[in-house]
Amino acid sequence: MSKSKDNSMWLKIGGLAGAVAICGLVVAVLQLSQSLADSKQQAIAQQTSDALNIQSQATIASLLDKQFQFQVALATAQAQGITPPIVEPTYLPSPTFQANATSVPVSGDQLAFVSERDGNKEIYVMNMDGTNLRRLTSNSATDESPSWSPDGTHIVFHSDRSGNRQIYVMNNDGSNVVRLTKDYKSDNSWPIWSPDGTSIIFANIDDYDNNGKFRTEVFSMNSDGTNIKRLTFNTGESDNYAHSAWPSGWSQDGNQILFYQYQNGLDQLWIMDSDGKGQRKLTNTYWDAIPFMSANGQWISFSSFRDGNYEIYRMELNGKNLVRLTKSTGEDWRPIWILNDTKILFESDRSGITQIYWMNSDGSEQECLICSGAYDGQPAWYP
Fold first, then answer.
1. How many CA atoms does the CB half-sphere of 258 hold within 13 Å?
2. What DSSP state is assigned to residue 107?
3. Among 363, 365, 364, 366, which residue's Cα sits nearest to residue 355?
4. What residue ranges in 231-363 does DSSP mark as E strands?
5. Rounded CA gap, 250 and 300, in Å?
6. Who contacts 316 (Cβ-Cβ below 8 Å, separation ≥6)?
7. Has this prediction a pTM greater than 0.70?
8. Cα gap 167→145, rounded to integer Å
9. Helix, strand or coil, per DSSP, at residue 80
10. Nearest to 281 by CA among 293, 298, 269
11. CA end-to-end distance (rounded Å), the chain
């Protein structure tokens, strides 16, 4: 840094007193030999730069500390056995969701998932290579089912922090949490963002027939929580909330929705248009659930109980070329296509506890990707 720049810097920082001090320093330096002047001036410049860098770092650290004060306070209270009271307005920082300009898109190959590694189900994000692990939610409630916005700036999820399951959205760093559904009577859960970012499908659990038997139906809404629509109507078809209609995913173009629903004694795979029309069954013989469509639209991966426990299969959209991909003593669940359909992420409890695995799309090279020793599941990939 030059002497003139040093003088300008000190004038800004110290005002007149700093200017006088610098002038005195200049006089002293000019009285020395040229070599000593050069050497000492470099040392002064370096000390000044170091001091300013330390001050800047301290300022940044202070700002970051303020950003995370709330999460740290919650964690400290929980460590001391203190459970913060759940107050509904606390979880409503703004009445409606609007895209936050300060939320920066993440780089590719990010994985959001749910883990109990810190005591209860919270949402985490990491790079696909396992680096840069971040915890996004931190409270005594259960936070689950993360789904990325198409641009990677936001994550939608469900939480029971209000007393029952409702759908929330947050920035990709966990900030600016906004509640999208406000139904106090029924549960809303398992949200999935549409490929164009305008819509979210989700499951609503309620006593639709007023007979004391709860079940789920598939609904859609705008990404800001408005314009809620019911897409499936299964009156009398379900025996309880576990055997109903559940959303699973979208086609890559956003024109179709995959779901599974309970009819005639079995959970089976279905597909429909994005407005709920054109519903048709894809399987009809075995217990089949949680279908996901490949990016090229050719294949569907799903879990099936057809061979005695839940294993992962794939088939073409027309039901042909069925292939079994996993053969384990545990239950394998939620198979998601990633990396241009070359890999499939899935959950498995083959080790005795649910963890996140991946494999090649032909079922080869199965290995545990996230294995913390606690529950790790519900993976959501951002390309």
1. 25
2. P
3. 366
4. 245-250, 256-263, 266-273, 280-281, 288-293, 299-304, 311-316, 323-324, 332-338, 343-348, 355-360
5. 11
6. 298, 299, 300
7. yes
8. 10
9. coil
10. 269
11. 43
Selection from 192, 185, 248, 249 nearest residue 214 by Cα: 185
Tens-place pLDDT, residues 237-291: 555 555 689 999 999 999 999 999 987 788 899 999 999 999 999 998 889 999 9
Helix or strand (DSSP H, E) at 145: strand 143-148
Please give the angle made by the CA atoms of 57, 58 and 63, to the nearest 5 degrees: 95
The span from the CA of 247 to the CA of 259, in Å, is 4
- Per DSSP, helices labelled H in the chain are 3-30, 34-67, 69-79
pLDDT tens digits, 199-240: 999 999 988 888 788 889 999 999 999 999 999 988 655 555
The DSSP line for 232-258 is ---TTT-SSTTSSEEEEEE-TTSSEEE
Amino acid present at 184: Y
Q: Rounded to an integer, what distance in angstroms lies between the CA atom of residue 319 and that of residue 9?
A: 72
Q: Which long-range contacts (CB under 8 A, 24 or more apart) does 59-64 make?
A: none
- Asked if residues 244 and 230 have their Cβ atoms less than 8 Å apart, the reply is no
Sheet containing 187-193: give its strands across: 187-193, 199-206, 215-222, 229-230
Residue 379 has a CB neighbour count (10 Å cut-off) of 21
Structure tokens, 286: 């075995």
| Residues 6+ away with beta carbon under 8 Å from 291 | 248, 249, 258, 259, 260, 269, 271, 282, 300, 301, 302
